[in-house]
Amino acid sequence: SLDIELTTYHAPAPPCSRGHTPPPLQRRSRRTMVDVTKWPLFSLMEGEELSSIRQACVFGTSANEVIYITHNDDVYVFGLNCSNCLGTGDSQSTILPKKLDFLSGRKVVSLSYGSGPHILLATEEGELFAWGHNGYSQLGNGTTNQGVAPVLVSASLLNKRVTEVACGSHHSLALTNTGEVYAWGYNNCGQVGSGSTANQPTPRRVSNCLQNKVVVSITCGQTSSLAVVENGEVYGWGYNGNGQLGLGNNGNQLTPCRLVGLQGLCVLQIVSGYAHSLALTDEGLLYAWGTNTYGQLGTGNKSNQLSPVQIMAEKERIVEIAACHSTHTSAAKTQSGQVYMWGQCRGQSIVLPFLTHFSCTDDVFACFATPSVMWRLLSMEHDDFLTVSQSLKKEFDSPETADLKFSVDGKYIHVHKAVLKIRCEHFRSMFQSHWNEDMKEVIEIDQFTYPVYRSFLEFLYTDNIDLPPEDAIGLLDLATSYCENRLKRLCQHIIKRGITIENAFSLLAAAVRYDAEDLEEFCFKFCVNHLTEVTQTAAFWQIEGNLLKEFISRASRCGAFKN
Question: Could you tell me which residues the RCC repeats occupy (predicted)?
């Protein structure tokens, strides 16, 4: 046997370390990316072509058209080309990808499609392009001529930066970076929100109730429109014959109207199916309303709902919802990564959320939706070969190749000195001061828990973290101590997704303690939105006096205590 002498080295506390109380463990949630080959249209593509794809969308009446964007920001299309929806300049179908040179080099941030279909595409620079079916002026160019190639939508949008787009059957919405909504196209039911039922040939700002509101998200059903404003309120307009606006009646709305059925709730995400809608609140609660012919509301029956009703109340926290205006299918993902589906699933009517083996909501639409379109613009990652980053990830905590290990709570974590020195200024300084290159060492860590420190080291190998929200507070403490700003931002993102009534004030206190301004603002707004409930929690009354005074003063300035 080979005997190896190990020297135990006690790591010095980082200069800005603070007290640390380890939170309880819970089941982890890991983000998983979708495999684009689950859509048959991609089956003819070679591995090298597939590995070049960064974003993709399958669309069309029969899911027979594809648009995808490569890592080099080149845009390709292929498929049936109904109504010139491929934008190739002609009406020819193509089984081989064709490059849209006009869009090359533009980073795509949002894409949506209608039933014609027509296509809207927004770029990182805020430009909006449209092409395809235009029988109702849904391309926004003032005509009803087919759009055979991408054209910049400039009318009424000059000097505006478009950040998100949404298409109904034959109408269009665009959201700007200032929170304004513009609409155009088919308007037989008021879905453009102009106050009339005349078609709108060019983008027109949706005002009325939204005039002084900052909109943060938009979605469309076939002939209806919905918007979420920054305080979590939801507004709807357009066709309402089956209650898809959630207003408690079935009358069409020619201008935006607030969904009073969601009053008191702060909505984070909203999606629309053919004639139904789903809303996800900041507490992870799920509400549904509208048409229920196929059980797409998940209520256990097929009765339409004119107002929002809560579903999946007995399940764990929901973190993502999915629907698409060309299908009657619904899906949701929980905090632990479980994916549920309901509604029309391969011809069957599933009236209650059904637990699947899928790892993401996109798989539901690939395998069970009719047509099997994508409900959003997808991002892909590939496992057919190991890049440098993938190789590093594979070697994390590998005893075979490691030349250093940490001991935390009596458990070892195996790492590589070179990686730590390259990736982290804290370790670079520590090794230069204390390191003897001829010795293998064990570094003992007693300031942080094993899950927190392991997640930190893994982050240095992967740029990602895999922790439940409760442990992310401890990691935020570490990130602050080690001056790892990107890690701080990732921790804040995880904590935001895990905020609840019970822990909101504790998270606010932690954000203040660790100078996490963005998280502090998020937690403060959550506490104000749920002021009555938050002030009844133990966490609220355990906070030290100065923070409590500052919160009350700030909340007062925001008008939280007005009748």
Answer: 73-124, 126-178, 179-231, 232-283, 284-335
